[in-house]
Write a structure and sequence with these properties.
Blueprint (H helix, E strand, L loop, with lengths): L2 H14 L4 H15 L7 H10 L6 H14 L2 H13 L5 H17 L2 H18 L4 H12 L9 H10 L3 H7 L1 H22 L11 H10 L1 H4 L1 H10 L5 H19 L5 H34 L2 H12 L3 H15 L5 H18 L4 H13 L9 H10 L3 H24 L2 H10 L3
Helix pairs in contact: 1-2, 2-16, 3-16, 4-6, 4-15, 4-16, 5-6, 5-12, 6-7, 6-8, 6-11, 6-14, 7-8, 7-21, 8-21, 8-22, 9-19, 9-20, 10-23, 11-22, 14-15, 16-19, 17-19, 18-20, 18-22, 19-20, 20-22
Length: 430
């Protein structure tokens, strides 16, 4: 057997046995090195160090900490109150409010799962009190959580940019228009579901200009959070890593000084949340770096490129094939893991076909994110179903219309690349 065959068969076997991803990547790489002489064993610790020594990765735990601090510091509640004032009374208002709140929260948290948990904990009970079926309330929240990886800052985008050698700021910029298209499509889907099921808005939230302005005044610092974080990046004041630290500092300032509800216990819990996420991510990145060196040595990207192009050399057809593969793999693997493993393998193929790296990055982030709504993995499904106290199966049935809406968005991004590339080209990030 060739080294590549040993690597792929051992990795597939370990995945089937339910071995954690980082262990499967590390073990299959080590098995390959022990069974062949393609590389010295010293490459193991060198690769692990190279995988950990990536500066932009520092932004990931910081944005997770910032999102958790927002939840504890009453920032999330204040954002939701303002959004409720605008759409809460309309047909399906609470569902639409959930999607919009997820969009706003995602502009700081950078994580789909964190967005689902934070917004769902507040709005799922509220929707259920207003006659929403538990599975519908959970489905809306789970779907809203998918925006978390598309609206910048996004941990998935950071990871793709690092591995694909793409500008992080350029990718962040590219995410705005697709993010709002996804948000609009989910809001429209929510409205149609509300009409069919007669889900009225929250009668307690009648629009009153005076109350609205009061809510905006009270929540001014909370509402200003995305502008502080993203503004620092686009004005050239801070890099994405520095902006993530600004997000943490600002969340602590608003939660502790302005809202006066953030305690040392909350800060510690937020830090531990960031540590857990970072610990998982960096280990996968480190082991995937070792895997990537073996794949590169065995010309795996070139072989995959040849395999894909045998079907078609049309960029759109190739993108559709990749999207289909990501849909299937997303059922079994977490979003970040997929991006870490597949980006170095797929990028040579897409570059050779002239596909814009930024368009491919946005498309990959959205396509892998669909996996958060599909069992057996379906992280968002599990989070929202737990909050709504219903079964994952029921939530999955409720989420099917949203999956259709997301697929339409994926197709739009595939056939119309300018949706992703317009802003980066306009602002000179390309």
């Amino acid at each position: 057997m060739s080294p590549l065959e040993i690597l792929l068969f051992s990795m597939a076997g370990l995945f089937l046995l339910g071995i954690p991803i980082f262990m499967a990547l590390a073990a299959s790489s080590c098995i390959t090195l022990l069974c062949t002489d393609i590389l010295p064993l010293s490459i193991i610790h060198n690769s692990l160090f190279d995988g950990l020594n990536i500066f932009p990765l520092l932004a990931v735990p910081s944005f997770v900490v910032a999102g958790t601090l927002m939840e504890y510091g009453n920032i999330t509640n204040q954002i939701i109150t303002v959004v409720k004032q605008i759409v809460g009374r309309s047909f399906g208002g609470l569902g639409i409010c959930t999607i919009l709140a997820c969009t706003f929260f995602a502009a700081i948290a950078g994580s789909g799962t964190a967005t689902t948990a934070a917004i769902g904990a507040i709005l799922i009970p509220s929707m259920m009190k207003n006659s929403y079926k538990p599975e519908h309330a959970a489905a809306i929240t789970a779907a809203g959580g998918t925006i978390g990886t598309l609206i910048p800052p996004s941990n998935s985008m950071i990871m793709f940019a690092v591995l694909g050698n793409v500008s992080v700021t350029g990718l962040f910029t590219a995410g705005f228009i697709p993010g709002f298209i996804v948000a609009f499509s989910l809001c429209l889907t929510t409205y149609i579901i509300a009409k069919r099921n007669n889900y009225h808005g929250d009668e307690n939230f009648k629009f009153d200009l005076k109350e609205f302005l009061t809510s905006c005044r009270k929540g001014f610092f909370s509402l200003f959070t995305p502008f502080i974080v993203l503004g620092s990046i686009y004005l050239g004041i801070a890099t994405p890593v520095e902006a993530s630290i600004i997000a943490v500092a600002y969340a602590i300032f608003v939660g502790a000084v302005i809202n006066r509800c953030l305690t040392w216990v909350h800060i510690w819990k937020a830090i531990m949340s960031g540590v857990m996420v970072c610990g998982t991510v960096v280990v996968i990145v480190a082991t995937s770096t070792l895997l990537g060196k073996i794949l590169t040595l065995e010309n795996a990207p070139l072989k995959l490129s040849d395999m894909i192009t045998t079907f078609s050399s049309n960029p759109i057809v190739v993108l559709l094939l990749i999207v289909g593969m990501l849909y299937i793999l997303g059922m079994f693997m977490e979003t970040l893991a997929l991006i870490i493993i597949l980006t170095p393998v797929l990028m040579p193929t897409t570059n050779a076909l002239g596909i814009d790296p930024i368009q491919f990055g946005i498309l990959m982030v959205l396509a892998t994110n669909v996996g958060m709504l599909t069992p057996p993995l379906g992280v968002n499904l599990f989070v929202s179903s737990r909050i709504a106290k219903t079964t994952v199966e029921r939530v999955f049935v409720g989420v099917l219309p949203f999956l259709l809406a997301l697929t339409v968005c994926v197709l739009l991004l595939t056939f119309f690349p300018s949706i992703s590339t317009f802003l980066p080209n306009l602002l000179g990030y390309q």
